[in-house]
Structures
1.
Amino acid sequence: MADHRQVIIIGSGPAGLTAGLYTARANLKPLLVEGIEAGGQLMLTTMVENWPGYQDGIMGPDLMKEMRAQAERFGAEMVQGDVTALDLSQRPFRVTVSGKEYLADALILATGASAKWLDLGVDKKLSGRGVSTCATCDGFFFRGRPIAVVGGGDTAMEEAIYLSKLATAVTVIHRRDTLRASKVMQDKAASIANISFIWNTEVIDIKDVEKGEVTSLVLKNVKTGETSELAVDGLFIAIGHVPNTKLVAGKLLLDDNGYIVTHGGTRTSVPGVFAAGDVQDHIYRQAVTAAGSGCMAAIDAERFLSGLAHEVPQQVGASHA
Amino acid sequence: MASEKIKTFTDTDFDSSIKDGVVLVDFWAEWCAPCRRLAPTVDQLAEDYNGKLTVAKMNIDENPNTPTRFMIRGIPTLLLFKNGELKETIVGLAAKDDLVRVIDKHVA
C-alpha cells in the first residue's frame, strides 16, 4: 500500500520549507521531499543581508537550517532524495521518491531554479576544471590566480566580491554597458581594487578543452564585433537561472521559459497542484518572496483540501497513514 | 553519521590506497555545502557495495597535493580508480542512481 498524505511538498528552499511550516501548523501533516539540492540556492551563498529580521545579515546555510528546524518543530516530515516520477493525471497524485511511492491529495511544487550555463558546450566540459557556477564552492582552487565572472546581476556581483579576496584579479564580463545588480552591490564591487569590468562583451569560447583546464577566454564585443582573448585560470558563470521543471514538463502548463504558470495565487493548471518560489517566478526571485509564495501555496492547498473534505469526506478519512 | 565503512585517505597514503581493486574517492571540504549534501549518498554507497568497492574521503584542506595532481578545480568531485588507474571523474552533486550506474561499469 502506498503511503497516502494530504499534502506533499517537493523542494526544501525558502518556498518549500515555508509551505511545510504553514501546512504543518494547519495540521495537514505534510511530507516534504528535500531533493538532492536540499536547502536550495541559499545553501551556496554566504551572507544574506536582505532577509527581514536580521539587521546584521545571516549566513544562507544557517538561515536554511533554522527554517528546516522550524518546519520540523511543527511536524513537517522530511524525506531525503529526489522525486523520480510524478503522476498528476488523477487524484490522489502519485509521487515516487527513490523507488518509494506516495499518494497526495494536494501537491506543492517548490523545486526552485538552477544556475544557467553559457550554452557553449565547452563550459559544461570544463565544469570542475576551471568553470564553475558556485564561487563559495570552488573559489578555494583559485587562490592567487586570475579569474573572470560573467554576468551583471546581484549574483555576479556577490561572486566577484567573494572571489576578490582569493583571486589576484577578478574581471567581470557583462554583455551590456550597465549592470542589472542592485545599487548597493554595484557600489561594493566597484570599490574593490582588484575587480575590473569589461562591458558589452560576451564569452564565445573557453580554452583549453584538450588540456582539461581553463587557460583563457575568447571574448566578443557585441557592439563592434571585435574579438579578444583574456588569460584566466577560472571562469565563474552567474548569468541567471533556469527553473527546475523537468519533472512536470508536459503535465502542467509552463511558460515559454519553462516556468510553471500560476493563477489566482499559487494554483497551477492542475487542480490540487500548487507552485511556489523560483519555479514559478522569474521576476522577483528573492528568498523572502519565495517564502511568501510558499505560505500562499500552503493556504491555497489547505483551502483546496477543506473543499475536498466537504465534497468527498471519505478521501480525507483515508489520508491519515 | 558517517558510515564506518568509509576510509580516510591522505596525500601520504593515496597512491598505495588506490592501487588495488575499485576505489571511489570523495574530495571534500568542511566549507563546501554541496559536499555536505553529497555525503549521505557516499555513505550509502559504502554500505551498499560493502567490500566490493572501497569508498574513501579526502579532505582537500588537509591534503592539497592529490587534488592538484588530478587538476581538481571544484568540489565535490568523485574519482573512481580501478587497480590504480583513473577511470571516472564525477564533478558536482549527483543522484545515487546515476552514481550506481557509473560504479557498476567497473564493479564486477
2.
Amino acid sequence: MSGVNVVELAVFTLLFVFVAVMGFMAARWKSGDTMDHLDEWGLGGRKFGGWITWFLVGGDLYTAYTFVAVPALVFGAGAIGFFALPYTVVLYPIVFLPVLRLWSVSRSHGYVTPADFVRGRYDSPTLALIIAITGIVATMPYIALQLVGLEAVLRTMGINGSGFVGHLPLFIAFLVLALYTYKSGLRAPALIAFVKDGLIYIVIIAAVVYLPSQFGGWSAIFGAASDKFEATPSPADGILLTGNNQLQYATLALGSALALFLYPHSATGILASRGRNVIKKNMIALPAYSFLLGLLALLGYVAIAAGVNPITNESTGRVDSNTLVPELFNSQFPDWFAGVAYAAIGIGALVPAAIMSIAAANLWTRNIYKEYLVKNATPKQEATQAKWASLVVKFGAVLFILFIDPQFSIDLQLIGGVIILQTLPAVAIALYTRWLHSKALIAGWVVGMAWGLYLLWTIPNPAIGKEHFGGSALTLSQLSIFGWHPFEGSTVQIYVGIVALLANLLVAVVVTVALRMAGVRDGRDATRGKDYHADEGDPQLREIAVH
Amino acid sequence: MVEPGGADRERRDPTDWDSGNPVDRIEGTGQDEGNAIQFSWWNLLLLVPLIMLITPLYNSEEPEMFGMPYFYWYQFAFVFVGVACVGIVFATTKNRRHRSVDPHAGSGPVDGTGTQR
C-alpha cells in the first residue's frame, strides 16, 4: 500500500462522501406519497423531466467502464476501438421511435420491465421468463465491470494492494452505494448523475483542450500512434481500419446500438421519464455524450504520444489496461485535478451500477418472484423484495470481483452483448407487430443463444494466449452451418452478435409460419393500438404508484 | 381528423392472426390501423445516419482537418448529422398526435394478464 497519492485520494474521498450524502438525501427528493411501490422505488415516480433524464440516461449508458475501456482499446488496437463513436451515433436514430412506443405501452399498463411488456403482449409467462433471465444474466457482469473501472482508479492512486486488502476500498465504496440505493431507489443515481456528468464534462473538455498542445497537436499525436502500430507485428492494428476488420467495425457498432436499449437498465432510465416529449428531446441531446466519448477515445492516442503505459494489477500480476486513462491524468495534470478526474470516473461507476442493480431487481421481482413465487404479492411486498434483490445483486458483483479473475467479467460482458441482442425479436419487434408467434420467439431465442455462445467459444485470442472467448470478431471462413462453410477462405471479420441475431430471426419467422399453418393459437394480447401512443396528460391514463 | 368510431375499434387486427383478440385499428389520430403505426415520410430521415456504417466511405487519412485524419473528423461530423436528422423528425412529427382521444371510445388498458399491479 505504499505510494498512495494523498492529494488525489483526499479530493477523491471528499467528492465521494459528498455524493454518498446526496444519495441518502435523494429519498426525499421529489418524493411521492409512498416508497413502497416499484413505480416510486424502481422508477423514481415515473416523472423525471428533460434534464434529469438526460443526466440519468447519460450516466447510465456512458459508464465508467466505457470511459476507461474505450481509450484502452484505442491505445492497444487503434481504429477498431473507435467503433464506440458510430455505435453511439447510429443508436439514437434507430431507437428514437421504438422507445417511444415502449414508454407509452409501459405507462399505459404499468409495466416496469421489458419482460413485463412481453408478458402482456404475448400472454406467455415462459417467454417473459426467458427475457427476464437474459436481462439479469447480461446485466450482472456489466455491474461487475463498473467495479473494474472503479478499481482502475483506485490502483492509479496507489491503492494497489494484493489479496483481500487490495479490494477493501472497493468493498467499502460498494457498501455505501448499496445502502443508499436500498433507501432511495432510482432517485439516488438520478441525483448523483448530475455531479458525475458535470465532473466528466469538465475533465474531458479540459483534457482534450490542454493535452494535444503538450504533444505538438493532433497531427503529431496521430503520427506517434501510427508509428507505434507500424512497429507492431500485428497487421490488424493501425490508425485506419484494415480490409479485414471493416465489417467487424460496422456490425459491432450496429449490433451494440441495437443491443443497448434492450438492456434492462436502459429501459429503466427511459421508463422513469415523464412523457414522450422528454424522451424525444433526450434522443436529440444525448449525442453530446457520444461526442465526448469520441474525444475520450482519442486519449488512447494521446497516451501513446505521452509514452504512458498502464500499470500492473498487484492482485492478479497482470497489466491492467484499464488504468491507462487514469495514468495519463496522473502524469499530465496536477494532483488535485487528477483527483477530480478519478472522482468523475469513480462516481461514474456508481451511477450505472445503481441503475443496473435496480433494473435487475425489478426483473427479479416482477417476472420471477411475482410470476412464480408469490403470485398475489402486494405493491409493498414487491418494493421490499426489489430492495433486497438490489442488495443481493450488488454483493454478487463484489464477490465476482473478489473471487474470480476480472478477465472473466470482461468475457461475460462480451457474451452479455451477444445474448441481450437475442431478445430483440421478442421486445423490439413486438413493439410494432405481434405477427411472430410466442413459441417461435422462444425457438429463435434458443437457437440465437446457443449459436452465439458457441461462436464466441470458438474465437481464440492468440495475443493473450486464450483459446476460447477471445473476442467478438468472427472470421467468416470459420463460419460453419452444419459443416458447410459459406465463406471458405475469407479473412473478413464480423460481429458474432449480428450473426446469431440473423439465425434467431430466421428461426422465429420459419417457426411462426409453421405454427400458423398448423393452426396453433397464440396467447391473448393485453395491449391495444392506442396504448402505443399514450402520453402524459391523456385522460384516463393510469395512476402512478396505485396498484 | 375523424374521431375513431366505436364499431371500427373492435375490428380484428389483420396482423393478429388467430389470437381472437380485438385490437384498435384506429388510433387517436383516427388514421392508424393494426398496431397503430404512425408513419411519416420524414421518418426515413432516421436512416441517413446509418451511412456511417459504410466504412469504405471514410477509411482514409486524407483530407486531414486540425491534424486529424479523415476517418476521425468525418465520424465526429456525423454526430451532428445524427442530431439534425432526429431533430428534424421530432419537429415535423410533433403535432401529428391528436390530443383529444375520445374518452368514451375504448376503455383504459385491459387487464387479464396479472401484470398490471
